[in-house]
Design brief:
Oligomer: single chain
Distance between the termini: 14 Å
Structural class: mainly alpha
Strand content: under 5%
Largest sheet: none
Length: 97
């Protein structure tokens, strides 16, 4: 029974880590939208907004952050699902006569 509990706790911890990474990606996305809204206040569309080099670097770094944290979140979620499946199998094996 000890192994099953450890697997269950591991699955929950990795799932929480995954959700934290998705939350970080959302914050990057929110900041990217704020940059676009600030450009829209000056009458610039998204393509014209990247005309300034500093804005273009900010947009690129925000997009990289979104991709990075989403990728880590997705990988962690896959690990959490794998651990949860192993936990379910371990629980099933412990109930066999």
């Amino acid at each position: 029974m000890q192994k099953e509990v450890k697997l269950l706790v591991s699955a929950v911890v990795v799932a929480l880590f995954s959700l934290t990474m998705f939350l970080a990606a959302f914050f990057f996305y929110n900041n990217l939208q704020q940059v676009y809204y600030a450009c829209a206040e000056y009458g610039l569309n998204r393509r014209a907004c990247s005309g300034s080099e500093s804005v273009a670097v900010s947009i690129a770094s925000l997009k990289a952050g979104i991709a990075w944290f989403s990728g880590i979140g997705l990988a962690a979620w896959m690990v959490a699902v794998y651990i949860a499946v192993k936990c379910k199998q371990a629980f099933a094996m412990s109930r066999l006569p």
